[in-house]
Amino acid sequence: MKKPASIIVVDDEQNNFDVIEILLFKEGYDLRYAASGDEAIRQLEAQQADVILLDVMMPVCNGFEVCRTIKANPKWQHIPILMVTALTAKEDLAKGLEMGADDFISKPVSGIELRARVRSMLRIKHQYDMLQELLQVKEASLQLREDMAYAIVHDLRNPLASILFACDILSMADLDLKQKKRIDRIVSSGQRLKFLIDNLLIMAKLDAGKLVLNCTEVDLYDIAKDVISEFQQIANQNQIKLIAHLPKPGKTFHLDDSLIRRVIDNLLSNAIKFSPSKAQVELKIDYLSADKLQIQVKDGGKGVNEELRQSIFEKYEVGELAKGVAQTGLGLSFCKLVVEAHGGRIFVESNQPKGAIFTVEI
Predict the structure, then answer these.
(1) What pLDDT digit, counting tens, does each position of 246-290 carry?
(2) Distances in Å between the alpha carbon of 283 and those of 3, 8, 216, 253, 295?
(3) What does each C-alpha distance from 155 to 64, 207, 264, 330 come to in angstroms?
(4) 40 vs 207, higher pLDDT
(5) Number of Cβ atoms within 10 Å of the Cβ of 70
(6) Is residue 101 a contact partner of residue 72, using CB atoms and an 8 Å limit?
(7) Which residues fall within 8 angstroms of residue 241, CB to CB, at 6 or more apart?
């Protein structure tokens, strides 16, 4: 059986409550009487209400003050307040709205109008309750996804750590050059996989709104040099020329060092992956102003079709980026989440004569 709507009627005169009780009798509401604002607040602390009918003209603490007190409390500010008043001046009505009142009804109270306005207030409360339920479901879903991400990361990290440890042991053995190169390749791939696993966990936190940026004054010259150094061997293996246009060292920008490093890493990784042999990949970093930064990565691949230039930043979106092969993943989505967390944007344009330019502006 559905629980009846709970309504608190706040009025210093019992007779006024009796009239409202008669007018609303057939509606089946649970009506509670409070002779003052203090009593209404005590009732709210004991039991929530769906609507409050609040008289304006009361001694000690008038309806405006009671309304402000209720709306200032996060536990009660969502409860619709219908002010019952004999005042008709626009200034009084404006004051009530400023204090947080949701609607007014004039004295003497009309039964038809009262019932209509109470139903309207209950609809507002019902819509709020529905939104809260949806929000709770979404929060539970995000928490589940975060928990799953933690579990997956944990399950992947353990065997990966064992593989890397075994490689360290093997590298100490008396190996020929070919064997050493194979071990180095396994280690490089393992470190790359570890990087991607960590990205998965960071994305789960970003999605859940739980990742707190650890921003410091960062010198992008140092970050870029480190990332380029890491990719130089891969670029050489693929006969790709890696070029960097960097600002002078010493200038800093307020960023999360680790996350921005991962963004540059992801963009360079994609650029090398989708560029053909003997192509050119460029990393360009500019300080456009004291508070604006631009990072660009240009590749020599097939480019990105115009209709895909928005969707490729969405998770798991498939796009034909290179070599006629459909690609899917989290890299660009990760970049978008991190850049937007910094208050910036990321977009892609065509590179001439061919390829793509990925631009980050913060």
Answers:
(1) 998 988 999 999 889 989 998 998 899 889 998 999 999 999 888
(2) 64, 65, 22, 18, 7
(3) 58, 21, 27, 19
(4) 40
(5) 25
(6) no
(7) 235, 278, 279, 280, 281
Instruction: Measure the CA–CA gap between 74 and 72, rounded to whole angstroms.
Output: 6
DSSP-based helix, strand, coil % in the chain, nearest 5: 50, 20, 30
Q: Out of 29-33, 210-214, 320-324, pick the least confident.
A: 320-324
Question: Percent of the chain scored above 70 by pLDDT?
Answer: 94
What length is written for the chain? 362
What band does 244 get if pLDDT is binned at 50, 70 and 90? very high
State the residue for tokens 């709970």.
6
Task: List, in sequence order, every residue forming a beta bridge with 89; answer none if it has no partner.
Answer: none
Three-class secondary structure of residue 133 per DSSP: helix
* Across 156-181, average pLDDT: 86
Evaluate if residue 318 carries a pLDDT over 70. no
Structural domains in the chain, sorted by start: 6-109 (3.40.50.2300), 137-207 (1.10.287), 215-361 (3.30.565.10)
Q: Pairing between strand 30-34 and 6-10?
A: parallel
Beta carbons within 10 angstroms of residue 245's beta carbon? 12
* Preceding peptide of 74 cis, ω within 30°: no
**Cis-peptide, bond into residue 108, ω within 30° of zero:** yes
